[in-house]
Amino acid sequence: MKPVNSGGHAAYQDRVLAQLRKYYPDAPNSLSSSTWEIMEKFWNLDLSEVDSIMRDRYSVFGPEPRLPSDMLRSILVSVEFGIVSYTKWAADLKENHLHAIISGFLVGDTPGTATFYDFQRRLWLSDKNNISDSVHPPKEKPKKPSKNGEKAAPVEKVTVKELFERFEQDPPHDMEPCRMLYEIFSTLFLKRSAADGLINLFSLSLAGDGTPIRTAARERKKRTCDCLEKGIHNCKCNRTYSQPDCNIGWDSLRNCYYFGYDLYMLTASDSENDLPVFPFLGPASRHDSHGFLYNWFSMKQFLPEAVVKKLLLDSAHDAMPVYTYCREQGITPFIDLNGKGGRPPVYKDDFTINNDGVPVCREGYTMRRDGTEVDKGRTKFKCPKISFAGGKITCTCENPCSDAKYGRTVHLAMKDNPRLFNNPPRSSKEWKMEYNARTSAERCNKREKVDYKIEDGRYRSTKMWYCRLFCIMMCQHLDAWDPPKTSRLRDLF
């Protein structure tokens, strides 16, 4: 039977208020302020639109189902209270009347564990619980870096340029099963944050970063061949994996190997609350430069109306195709150099370029920036030894490079090397101020891993991990919204 929510959000509020008066008559004095804060969040959160979004996921036959809005709200409440197991949460709803009331259920009539798993199945638009096939050859394990804190070298056999060309013609479809999840997240949370001025979807500044998500202590697999009986231990034959979308990667923070996913998150860097915009779960061995491309081209399919103006990425993304793509799309890149891409040793015959993309004259002096000509796509640098003392312009260099009145000037054309020559230059205060906001992606990942304990969920399928991840992202936006000036729930109580 199709879900019917005739009363909408007002009916939920009436249920909450009636049951609070019945089971918690002394609630204002007996409940903690943090509990009241969570209650206020969900009292004002209208999820009734979820019932219409998910209507087609229910049959016209059978018994009346639980309202999708109540089920989703209950999962969000479990995220807020830090309970990651649906078995424990279903038991908690039966014992803790307050959690049942906040979820929107009647005390004594709460869903069981199977109902939560069935609801997640309806959120996931695929018959398979994972994205890739469970039977595939062993994946390559990344090599341990030589120094502590370093990221492992990429194991992918495709370059960033080749991946750009492939995805521009045929974007990845890994996120298709999450389309309904993202529709709910975008409609009820992301666009609400945009309406409140927390995010500007038409002038986005995005920070990207990957983080390891440990899902199990070890990799579980079974052989499909008889090579072991023949004495061949390290064959490349197919295996059956219980978590086919995961593999072994290197955790540069903990300095150890781990089994699980690489979560690549795009975050609104200009939001005060480090709000998430788009996630992507890839195998643990995937390099951040590839994880960014999978995320980026997936986001363009799911959020086509977004206009990105700035991209803030760390040195793992320092590849020429990224700069070229940004220039073609009208995006200003803020990407740290990794020191491996090289730089032109000599520019304009007698000038070298330093690590920040700034000219260094033949005497070894770093030149001074003198503005950017945006229309011509070039930045001007002038001699740093020019003096204006006494109202006269003189060059104080012992071996001047030019006889010109203002000394030697150099114009760096961004088309010559968009990786090194960018606007603003890396040596400028504007670039450093903007790039400092890249840590918003790290703070966003920290909230999901530490505050919301995403790694504590011992799920075996990508479906469950994505459902939990999107619910955490919803709570991140919910926490960022300003509460009403007065407590309507307390006043009515």
Mean pLDDT: 89
Query: Could you estimate the helical fraction of the residues in percent?
Result: 25-40%
Unreliable runs: none
Number of helices: 16
Computed structural class: alpha+beta
CA-CA gap between termini: 35 Å
Overall shape: globular
Number of strands: 16
User: What is the percentage of strand-forming residues?
Assistant: 15-25%
Summarize the structure.
This protein is 35% helix and 16% strand. The protein has helices at residues 8-23, 27-30, 33-44, 49-53, 68-80, 86-95, 97-103, 113-123, 160-169, 179-195, 288-302, 320-329, 429-435, 439-451, 462-480, 488-492; strands at residues 135-136, 204-216, 221-223, 239-241, 247-251, 256-268, 276-283, 308-313, 332-335, 352-353, 359-360, 368-373, 378-382, 386-387, 394-395, 409-413. A hairpin with a 6-residue loop joins strand 14 (386-387) and strand 15.
